Amino acid sequence: MASLHSDVADLGLAQAGVRRVEWAERAMPVLRKVHDRFAAERPLAGMRVAACMHVTAETANLLRALSGGGAEIALAASNPLSTQDDTAAALVAEYGISVYARAGIDPQSYDRNLVTVLEQRPHLLLDDGCDLVNVAHMERPELLSEAVGGCEQTTTGVIRLRRMSTEGVLKLPMVAVNDTATKRMFDNRYGTGQSTLDGIMRATNAMIAGRTVVVAGFGYCGRGLAERARGLGARVIVTEVDPVKALDAVMQGYTVLPMDEAAPIADVLVTVTGNRDVVRAEHLASLKDGAVLANSGHFDVEIDLPSLEAMSVDIRREVRPQADEYVLSDGRRIVLLAEGRLVNLGAAEGHPAAVMDMSFSVQALTVAWLAGAHSGLEPGVLDVPDGVDTQVAGLELEALGVRIDRLSPDQLEYLNSWQV
């Protein structure tokens, strides 16, 4: 299998990658059941899949399930800092999946790898941030000649897809895996909350208790981050542009301030909005000495990095792995984590495997549905098929040993009748 076309750092890391993948699999019992079902039923036989995803052990287990179902897969990274080189090697050498990903590659290589996986002329696209779909539509539309659909698993990617659909340029049916209840509740809220703080603490070794943590954005990801920061003893301030979300934060007991008032008192400032220029030059100029900046939105545009570079009077230096210090003209030091990219993947390992178990099980079942139902679908952004989310949640409860009540026939009749 090592003869597969691939571009990874070192195939000699494969056995270390296998150990990492198998460790993650222990916490992914639902996906294991999906894997076994796919291996028996082969719902993806003959399907070529192009994926742009974080090259992690959890992703490897998703791709193993799809491969077991008959899919031929080519994988590129969705973030240069999140690639686990040992996992990439294991995917190629042990699991028969073509991988084009190396940790820390430059932007040109990143873009080239996206084109390479598209050159496999895939039937299905799996995306994380809409980069793969965007490149296919903008640069190489001819490579979509055999594509029938795909999935998108991030908030940022779904936003981009909806814009493409509104403007009439989206050529494929794309399922918004991100918009399921399990994805938003567990992946975005619990996963992002824990893994973001994990990245911050690994990069800084800083105490969270007693510090002022500013969370920019109070969607599902921001809510989870705020909850976990408060649980560790931080004073949490929320910034928002949406009145409803801001009111929600107030009702949950958080202080809500505009960014120009929050930035000067932040010990740690984390953006998690999915938008650009959330922390701008005027906010950077007001940060206190030693303030830590991090981003947990998908792209590195939430913090105005060019302005930070321009304001710095000294060459940035790495004070710790994934922690770069910028010195301003008045001597203040600002610490930027993971180059302003996703801190939970750039400075840590992303979401726990138990969280990704649900998200990737939903994605796997949706891919199988697409493989069978694509002929009746129109281009646009689609919801995950009815029942998939509930099925995965039920399997997860079963794996946890949790039992719940069931509706009686009388209750079902009552809920489905308009008569008292």
UniProtKB/TrEMBL annotation:
User: Sorted alphabetically, which keywords does the UniProt record give?
Assistant: Cytoplasm, Hydrolase, NAD, One-carbon metabolism
- Give the binding site residues for substrate: 56, 128, 183, 187
**InterPro entries referenced in this protein's UniProt entry, alphabetically:** Adenosylhomocyst_ase-like_sf, Adenosylhomocysteinase-like, Ado_hCys_hydrolase_NAD-bd, NAD(P)-bd_dom_sf, S-Ado-L-homoCys_hydrolase_CS
Specify the domain of life of the species encoding this protein: Bacteria
PROSITE patterns per record: ADOHCYASE_2
Pfam families for this protein: AdoHcyase, AdoHcyase_NAD
Annotated ranges, domain S-adenosyl-L-homocysteine hydrolase NAD binding: 188-350
Question: Pathway, per Swiss-Prot/TrEMBL?
Answer: Amino-acid biosynthesis; L-homocysteine biosynthesis; L-homocysteine from S-adenosyl-L-homocysteine: step 1/1
Give EC number(s), comma-separated: 3.13.2.1
Q: Which cofactor does it need?
A: NAD(+)
Give the reactions, separated by semicolons, that this protein catalyses.
S-adenosyl-L-homocysteine + H2O = L-homocysteine + adenosine
Q: Which residues bind NAD(+)?
A: 154-156, 188, 217-224, 240, 275, 296-298, 344, 351
Q: What Gene Ontology cellular-component terms does the record carry?
A: cytosol
Keyword Hydrolase assigned to the entry: answer is yes
Q: Which GO terms describe its molecular function?
A: adenosylhomocysteinase activity
One of this protein's GO BP terms? Answer: one-carbon metabolic process
Database matches in CDD domains: SAHH
Q: What function is annotated for this protein?
A: May play a key role in the regulation of the intracellular concentration of adenosylhomocysteine.
Record-stated family: Belongs to the adenosylhomocysteinase family.
Q: What is this protein called?
A: Adenosylhomocysteinase
As recorded in Swiss-Prot or TrEMBL, the protein's gene is named: ahcY2
